[in-house]
Amino acid sequence: MKRYDNYSLSAHNTFGMDVRAALFVEYETEDELRRFLQSGDLARHGRHLHIGSGSNLLFAGDYDGVVMHSALRDLEVVAEDDSHIEVRVGAGYVWDDFVAYCVAHGWGGVENLSAIPGEVGASAVQNIGAYGVEVRDVIVRVEAMALDGTMHVFANAECGYGYRDSVFKRGLRGQYIITHVVYRLDKTPTFRLDYGDLRARVEAGGTPTLEAVRGAVAAIRDSKLPDPKVLGNAGSFFTNPIVTRSHYERLKETYPDMPSYPAGEDLVKVPAGWLIDHAGWKGKALGRAAVHDRQALVLVNLGGATGKEVMALAERIGEDIYNNYGIRITPEVNFIL
Ligand code: EPU
């Protein structure tokens, strides 16, 4: 197991914040993780945080506890019939490498989730979603270790999945460490192309294939989302708020082109990116933190911004959105205070 004191996290958070962890550990086997959990080090340090590739985190400053990272990167087929295949993947496997693996093997289900930063473990915590697909659609079960070292298996229905939400973010937060995720993929893919201009892009190349969907999704993301290696960011900074249909209908009288997506009976989801953009924030900076100029849902580090500067910008935007539209937007990014 790798173990470092006073360790720089700058390579472990896509905002590129130069903050330090009191202790950083990276384990390669479940046994290593269990031994560490049972060593008493977590309790001694007071608090802990498990990270993937840090693509959804914003550190306010140094972290005075233990930061853990999984290097479990195994992948095996655990079940198969004529139409489906089940694959068990280590939590530290890079998410997009897994998508590439599935596409290369002709297995459908995750191609719309191409090019999302992060790792397999975080996919199951965050219920990552894009272009009409959420990872909950393909998760069979999640294997996790409790802090006492015992293993637990959560069937999909026990994970409490909702839009960018799961039981691992809420009631069970900090209590389990995901070690493996089992996904169920389709040997005869069904293409889901009804989001935005995805269909037009894919069909421009002929009959849809998994490779074509993966390529189109990556190209759309590339055109809007900044590359964290160039401009620090954590993807969508806010979740898209859900409001009552009557609230939305009232707003529509003033803003006739405000988009929406159905979100259950009498509820609609409104794109936070649209609200922020139309409130005039796109491209605006506050200190060294800014709203991305091609996608208003993304906040960026212009260089040397602190987490507190980004949080201050987010707060200002949130107040403005509430004053303009009567809607509260909540960060999707986890603030680590
Ligand atoms: N829009 C604007 N201005 C902007 C940004 C968006 O007017 O600056 C409008 C767009 O024109 C469109 C609508 O808002 O009508 C939605 O925009 P988009 O399709 O870009 O999607 P989104 O709601 O901004 C969500 C996810 C993304 C995911 C895309 C595609 C959330 C919080 N975000 O973004 O996820 O890639 O849909 O499915 O649900 C992420 O989680 O990091 C992420 C990038």
CATH class of the largest domain: Alpha Beta
What value does the average pLDDT take? 97
| pLDDT < 50 runs, ≥5 residues | none
Biggest sheet descriptor: 5 strands, antiparallel
- Summing up helix and strand content along with how strands pair, one would put the structural category as alpha+beta
Give the overall shape, derived from the CA principal axes: globular
- Tally of distinct domains: 3
Helix content: 25-40%
What's the alpha carbon Rg, rounded to whole Å? 20 Å
The number of strands is 20
Q: Give me the number of helical elements.
A: 9
Percentage of β-strand residues = 25-35%
Second-tier CATH architecture of the largest domain? 2-Layer Sandwich
Structure ligands: uridine-diphosphate-2(N-acetylglucosaminyl) butyric acid
What are its keywords?
globular, Uridine Diphospho-n-acetylenolpyruvylglucosamine Reductase, domain 1, Uridine Diphospho-n-acetylenolpyruvylglucosamine Reductase, domain 3, 9 helices, Uridine Diphospho-n-acetylenolpyruvylglucosamine Reductase, domain 2, 337 residues, 20 strands, alpha+beta, binds uridine-diphosphate-2(N-acetylglucosaminyl) butyric acid, four-stranded mixed β-sheet
